[in-house]
Specification:
The complex is a heterodimer. Chain A is mostly beta strands. Chain A is 0% helix and 53% strand. Chain A contains no helices and eleven strands. In chain A, strands 2, 4, 5, 6, 9, 10 and 11 form a seven-stranded mixed sheet that branches. In chain A, strands 1-3-8-7 form a four-stranded antiparallel sheet, with no helix packed on it. Chain A is globular. Chain B is mainly beta. Helix content of chain B is 0%, strand content 50%. Chain B has no helices and 13 strands. In chain B, strand 4 and strand 5 form a beta hairpin. At the A-B interface, strand 5 and strand 10 of A face strand 6, strand 7, strand 11 and strand 12 of B.
């Protein structure tokens, strides 16, 4: 069974740095493009970033370029998202999601909540 | 960027009745080389992550009840629930995965309730 478990969320002060993790199991992690999607409280889904199998292709939402860095460690079956200089508008649940054939998202984690507040 | 617009924003349907949700993309998401529409539908219930319902615009994900169906091509798409059940109360999102470089975008969501 596919299992994706996010961690690393919590309360962070504006201007701080946060690193989120997603632990994958139940499938060959090194065969799938992975993604981060976020959802602000009471709002819709916002795609954040994707990373290809060997990290060759990395994409970010235009509105988020510059402060977000996606990475993966296939040896550890793990996906990461670093957020620098966090802002109040980064407050959201962050989901990791597996992309089938690099396209649609067929498996999602439960998400980790990031709250940016002083 | 491709913008996805769903209608309506919210919808109330009686149990057993048909529910129809629309999704319009700002440009075509049909790829002639593959003859596919690069569009998916997701269901999200409160406190849960999204769940994939339909991909390639009309292919139902394994395990999804057959009362859910997707249709459309090019820029206009529809998710239909043929006979609404209580457990279908959720927010539904469309997503395009066509753009190059691949930048996924979601519609704003449609909240489905029981009338």
């Amino acid at each position: 069974e596919v299992h994706l478990v996010e961690s690393g969320g919590g309360l962070v002060k504006p201007g701080g740095t946060l690193r989120l993790s997603c632990a994958a199991s139940g499938f060959p992690f090194n065969s799938y493009t992975m993604n981060w999607v976020r959802q602000a409280p009471g709002k819709g889904l916002e795609w954040v970033s994707s990373i290809s199998i060997s990290s060759t292709h990395i994409y970010y939402a235009d509105s988020l370029k510059g402060r977000f860095t996606i990475s993966r460690d296939n040896a550890k079956n793990s996906l990461y998202l670093q957020i620098n200089t966090v802002r109040a508008e980064d407050t959201a649940v962050y989901f990791c999601a597996r992309a089938m054939a690099g396209y649609y998202f067929d498996s999602w984690g439960q998400g980790t909540l990031v709250t940016v507040s002083s | 960027d491709i913008v996805m617009t769903q209608s309506p924003d919210s919808l109330a349907v009686s149990l057993g009745e048909r529910a129809t949700i629309n999704c319009k993309s700002s440009q075509s998401v049909f790829h002639s080389s593959t003859n596919k529409n690069y569009l998916a539908w997701y269901q999200q219930k409160p406190g849960q992550p999204p769940k994939l319902l339909v991909y390639w615009a009309s292919t139902r994900e394994s395990g999804v009840p057959d009362r859910f169906s997707g249709s459309g091509s090019g820029t206009d798409f529809t998710l239909t629930i043929s006979s609404l059940q209580a457990e279908d109360v959720a927010v539904y999102y469309c997503q395009q995965y066509y753009s190059t470089p691949l930048m996924h975008t979601f519609g704003q969501g449609t909240k489905l309730e029981i009338k």
